[in-house]
Amino acid sequence: MAKSIANPAVKFTADVSPYVRGVKSAQAATSSFKSKGSAAWAGAAKAIKAGSAVIAGAATAAAGAIAALTAKGLKEIDQISKLSDELGFSTEALATYQLATELTGTKQENLTKGLQRLVRRLGEAKQGYGEAVKGLKALGFSADELTRVPVEEALGRIMDRINALPTSTERAAAAYAFFGRQGQELQNFLALGSKGLAQVRKEADLLGLTFDRLSGAKVENANDALAKARKIVVALSRAFAVALAPFIEVVSNNLIDAGKSAGGFGNIATRAVGWVIKAAAKLADAWSVVKGAFNAVKAAVLLGLGLILGPLELILRTAAKVADVFGLDFASSITAAAEAISAFRKEGAEAARSAAANYQAGFSGESSRRAERFVSEIQRQADERAKETLRQKERDRAELQRRQQLEETRKQTRGIDRLNQTVGRPQSLTGAGY
């Protein structure tokens, strides 16, 4: 018969220390990987940020350069187009002359004045008078010969004939006849001749410096639109002035009528003056509110435009930094454009602050209190001056009386002296025989 085993107990033992060490090692490796991964991610983030800044900077530089060059181009094209209408030269010819002045070291201002005199003197010569008559004769031209061709062709012929003269003095005299005082300063330019100008024209065309009159008209329209846009704030101020003028007139007339009705009655005048002071103070408060409204509108316009131009300012500043790093010439122009936008935005912020201050002053009655203190101080100073005037008059009156008394005393003294002299004379000297 089999025997049963009661309460069996089995004890298992195992060495787990290697497992524990492995777990700890795995944890350390995991922590190290996490730390290195975070550092790597931070480095990658910095690299991405730096790369984005470089890309943004490059884009900013490009945008800033385009903005600066566009502004300069708008100005130059507008000037050339208007000069073309004034003198009759084509815009292509004037752009060519501009390049020619730079190549020959001639001032553009001298050329412009010289061309103006040339056109005027050719017109005078056609009428048979003026300095150009001598020049035409010296060069062998007739007035009709030069006035019936385009003015740039006439200029080329004159240049060729002047260059054909044998001496510098003759060339200077002929240049003066057509170009006035600028003739001598245009000698290098005139020395190009018509062939030289034609070569410069080809170079200007290849460089893209020339443009037709239609393109010039587009630029003039753009400049006109910009000029009109700058007048927005002026138009707003004038509109407010017109709208408020009737109310200002009514208030002013009421003040005048109140002043007239109070004349001649001391107590009524006193009350009227008090009312005028309070009315003026209230008007000052109301005017503060009106100024606040105007500044609020101005701030809305400027801040709205500033919000639009804000990114452009950031772009321009970044472009200026990049351009400065690379030593580009237009870095200062871009910075100036950014500063202009910044000033524009600051003006908007200042208008907003002014509006808030105006509203606070108007609704709080600060202007009224200030006006009352001001009027009180004025009245106090006026009283002091009046009292001092009266005191000075009293002093002057006392001084006058003292002088009059002194003069009277002197007269009496002189009379007594004469009397004593008369009484003391010998009787024979006062007789009838003498």
In a nutshell, what does this entry contain?
By secondary structure, the chain is mainly α. Helix content is 84%, strand content 0%.
| SSE series | HHHHHHHHHHHHHHH
Q: Please, how many helices?
A: 15
User: In one word, what is the shape?
Assistant: flat
Summarize the main sheet.
none
Portion of residues in beta strands equals under 5%
Got a strand count? 0
Radius of gyration: 47 Å
Q: In terms of structural class, how would the helical and strand content be classed?
A: mainly alpha
Percent helix range? over 70%
Mean of pLDDT: 76
Distance between the termini: 209 Å
Uncertain residue ranges: 1-14, 428-434
If you had to describe this structure to a student in words, what would you say it looks like?
This protein is an all-alpha fold. The protein is 84% helix and 0% strand. It has helices at 17-87, 91-104, 108-126, 132-139, 143-147, 151-164, 168-179, 182-185, 187-190, 193-207, 213-230, 232-261, 266-325, 331-364, 366-423. The protein starts with 16 loop residues before the first helix and ends in an 11-residue tail after the last helix.
Top keywords for this entry?
single chain, mainly alpha, 15 helices
Question: How do the strands and helices of this protein lay out in sequence?
Answer:
Layout: H1 17-87, H2 91-104, H3 108-126, H4 132-139, H5 143-147, H6 151-164, H7 168-179, H8 182-185, H9 187-190, H10 193-207, H11 213-230, H12 232-261, H13 266-325, H14 331-364, H15 366-423
